[in-house]
Amino acid sequence: MSSREQILSAIKGIERESKQLPDIPEFPQTENLQKVFKDSIQGNKGEVLSAIEFEEWIASLGDQKIISVSSRFPNLSTIKLPSDPHQLNDLNLAIIDGQFGVSENGAIWLEEENLKLRALPFITEHLVIVLDSQKLVPSMHQAYESIGSKHSGFGLFIAGPSKTADIEQSLVIGAHGAKSLRVVLL
Beta partners for 131? Predict the structure, then answer.
């Protein structure tokens, strides 16, 4: 018998008493979900806009390379979505739909089918996520319940523009992805 088999056999031979997993407590949120969500996004260095504020902001941009895969703002693209994400290395703005938002931390769940290209939220210089205000959940516990066991292939939470800090506590925004995040809360 190899030493590996001896070790595994010894571990299997240890008697352990069965323990129940702890109950997950409820985390009720009595505060206004929209206000908490907005505060969380701002705390993450993002910005929350109304549809009117967004339309005014987008009109002020001028000539930019924009891709919108949002079902709410489908006509804002100034370039076509390529099949190869390498062609987006100078994309100024991507506009995408979020599936739901998490009030406690400002995280927004995105699924591959709404992104069209997985690289889109990372390769763009600025990111806009369009989110229905009725699709806010209080905490990550409810967020994971919302995701459940459905298979989406690829999904992620985004909670603000890309940020990193080194040992010297120097914060860099936009190091690994978008330099800014704006959430259009409808």
Answer: 185
Mean pLDDT calculated for residue range 83-99: 85
Cα 128 from Cα 54, distance rounded (Å): 9
Strand partners of residue 165: 171
Look up residue 94 and give its two tokens.
Answer: 């991507």
Question: Cα separations (Å) of 53 from 32, 56, 99, 174, 185?
Answer: 21, 5, 21, 23, 10
The answer to whether residues 41 and 183 touch, using CB atoms and an 8 Å cutoff, is: yes
42 contacts 67 by C-beta, under 8 angstroms: no
Please, are residues 106 and 45 in contact by the beta-carbon 8 Å criterion?
no
Q: What tens digit of pLDDT does each residue of 20-52 get?
A: 888 877 766 667 888 988 988 888 888 999 988
Topology at the third CATH level for domain 31-185: Rossmann fold (3.40.50)
> What are the extents of the domains in the chain?
31-185
